[in-house]
Amino acid sequence: MATLVVLLVFALFIVAILTGGYNKQMISRFRSHWLWEWLTTVDHKKIGILYAIGGGFFFIFGGIEALLMRIQLFFPDNQFIVGRDFNELLSMHGTTMIFFVAMPLLFALMNVAVPLQIGARDVAFPFLNALGFWLFLAGGLLMNLGWLFGGAPDSGWTNYVPIALNQYSPGSGIDYYVLGLQIAGFGTTMGGLNFLATIINMRAPGMGFLRMPLFTWTSFVASALILFGFPPLTAGLFLVMFDRLFGAQFFEVALGGNPVIWQHLFWIFGHPEVYIVVLPAFGVMSDVISNFARKRLFGYTSMVFATLLIGFLGFMVWAHHMFTVGMGPMVNSIFAIATMAIAVPTGIKVFNWMFTMWGGKITYSTAMLYAVGFIPTFVLGGVTGIMLALPPADFQYHDSYFVVAHFHYVLIGGTVFGILSGLYYWWPKMFGYKLNETLGKWNFWVFFIGFHLTFLIQHFIGLFGMPRRYFTYQEEDGITLFNQISTVGAVMMGVGALLFVANIVVSYRNRTSLVAGNDPWDGRTLEWAISSPPPVFNFAQLPQVRSLDCWWHEKMEGNKEMEPAEPLDHIHMPNDTPLPIIMSLGFFISGLGLVFRAFEVGVLGLVVVVVTMFVRSFKPDHGYHIEVEEIKATKKGA
Amino acid sequence: MSRGKPIGRLFLFFAMFALLLTGCEKPLSNVLDPQGKIGKEQLELINLSVYIMIFVCVIVFAIFFYVLLRFRRKPGDNAIPKQVEGSLMLETLWIVIPIILLVILAIPTVMTTFSQAKEAPKTASEDFIRVKATGHQFWWEFEYPDYKIRTSQELHIPVGKKVYVEVTSDDVVHAFWVPGLAGKVDASPGRINRIPIDADKPGIYKGRCAELCGASHALMNFQVVAEKPSEFEKWAKKRQKPKSEPQTVEAKDGKKVFAQNCMSCHAIDGTKLKMKGDKAPNLTGFAKRNKIGGLLDNNEKNLDRWLKNPEKVKPGTYMPGFSHLNKKDLSSLKTYLKSLK
């Protein structure tokens, strides 16, 4: 605790020195700084970029953790990182990649694209949007602090009890997990709620539900999954938190507790989570494939209903992660059949993508390469998914490297390829310039080949009897070479990821030669009808939507822009506000206090939260108006 | 660029096949080559699903690569392709065919799920044996209720007989898995899960813990020793009347050292020690075991290594090191342990 206070005082000193101390000008000096604008913004486009930076930042951590694990597994009986340290790596790799990489990067794309695709000026609750981002960041930073103070979580991303309880994991690692995830989870739930409200209420005139682009549709369904999927996790985390912090006995077998309850709560959240991260990626693929094949999406309506069906069935299958728990043949059979059923809507999607390209004119840009590379990869991940759904066969696969291979095929082949495709696709919309295509293709091929090199072989490592989460294996197991190939592939993926970073740097330097107009890809959906990057109010006049792929439709009729649905009038905008970041800081302090069992600090943090909530609720904040002259000036400038 | 893709994939598959032929000299725990009836039933299901999935993959990949190559946009081609809405016929086709394939898969799945879940008959008989397996951080305890034997790390089973294993845990969640024989089941505290295994061929099969259970999760191995029924009975008899009393002077000293240092956690049957510790593996018949700690080959050097610094071998183990014992005590302790048959 003393260390914390010292650090806090030290930080305040630094701030004081850098700002020249507190005086009347300090606030105004703060406010005119460019950073202030980013810290207080409620603009969905800026929050999207913040999410992308946050997700990218944690991606570095998750990637390094993965590489360290693969290095340890290069030789049998290697002593590089063993025991608890390795368990910390695997736990943090999983947790980071799911909660602090996949989710924020998808939220980045959703923030950038969804309001533009439905013709809205912002999301429904801009304040909530900013709060969601800062809570995610607070949670992610809190959890990663474990590396510095007291040890990182070491019970896997699934955090099964009793191994996650004080008796078996006495350090503060699991406390970081529980509190970090809880805080980030609040943010995610708000984000999901926000997008639901946005998509239901803020569609432009004429944008019926069955005219929404597929990315908006999948974001919509994913948001609904967030809304219903996160509460079980929240409840489960509270149980673990009370067991660890306050001596409750929810999971103590000797006192009648039941550890299996946690597994159920976790997977009731955990399985929909898989669809939360993969559905928006499906949406990106649908938009990108349709765009670069220059064809409307084949079977649009069936795509929409397949998405809804996947979302619905996603809640019915959680126990297939628990076939070996011993629930009996009846329960196992029911969940097996439900799981197989998901293959049908997923199959519909795959065939629809291929028949969208059938008869089209395909341009292989980097975004399209990722979308195209996604199809076979995801199909492989999908067929192993069906194989895993058969309980007696799953008894052999379960918790082996076969499972590791399977979910990396769907999570990297699905989610990560989708995110990268989306970033290449919407980068010009976000920043006004394209990413370099040559480097982009290098990026794709190195990453793609590295990926298959890493994970294809892991199916066999699992079938030759290596369970997951093993820090070592023996020479006699005969899987040395397989593991070495996998490690080489992982290094290649690392190089591929670096190429993406290099591409960002190179493209930024050459941004003048890569300038993209409003519509660099000959797009089909509404976001390509406005300037890149769009003005703060997105649409000077809300557009009148007349069909699916409305922007393509207007272009085919020879129109240069969307027909406005309203006269030019002043636009009401929300004010920037520092309250979200202060509120998140309160949660962060509270979480840190609870981790160190400094309950006073924990309460102090919550007081900060309540005070900010009070200010938010009772201080009127009516926003401001952008006048017609200003809109006209922006229009001319762009 | 697109032309490199199928070639790249083909190369990958060939590389993989080459590896399959050369890389797997002696996988002692191969799911694809199980040595028991139950494992073989599971493999049949795996094979059926693999065939169906290969069928699916071939169709998808064929269409996929055809589309990729056939419908490239040539430079300067600005024609707008026909905007197709969909096709009821095609879409029905790829709803109905997958459903048929899934039904083909689901029927044997449900049948096997139920048939393999049959529990052990209540009365003992010649056709099967019962074993209770308990997971501990980081070792396995095996009890034969019908034989009144308690042992650890090595599970002896008779070839050709069904072995009903009751799996549970003493601390955290583990999972009991013998990949070369059959699938796994969780060992949860406060629950008893039942799983049948069997072996057709005598041999030593590697057992694993498959659920993350702590620092040495990766080292919580055990061995299944499958023997002919007659040999199994011989082993069981010997284990019921073990030779645990020291025969030499040095071994007698060793037993004293054991009583002073090890007895509170480890038990040895067939001796008159004051207590039988149950916190750590039962060491009866230690000299006959293949492995020390389920992991190291059972020889003098490894025994020395293990006794002096077990933490180095199995991180997080509860066993303390005994490097503080003087040379004489240590060597007599080892002599005593090596005399346990």
Give a written overview of the molecule:
Chain B: One of its GO terms (cellular component) is plasma membrane. Chain B: Pfam families: COX2 (PF00116), COX2_TM (PF02790), Cytochrom_C (PF00034). Chain B: Residues 249-341 form the Cytochrome c domain. The complex is a heterodimer of chains A (638) and B (341). Chain A contains 21 helices and 2 strands. The relative contact order of chain A is 0.10. The model of chain A has no long low-confidence stretch (mean pLDDT 94). Chain A has 638 residues and is mainly alpha-helical. Chain A has one domain (37-577, 621-637): Cytochrome C Oxidase, Chain A, CATH 1.20.210.10. In chain A, strands 1-2 form a two-stranded antiparallel sheet. With 341 residues, chain B is of the alpha+beta class. Among the domains of chain B are: 128-228, Immunoglobulin-like; 249-338, Sandwich (Immunoglobulin-like), CATH 2.60.40.420. Helix content of chain B is 39%, strand content 19%. Chain B has a 5-stranded mixed β-sheet with strand order 3-2-1-5-8.
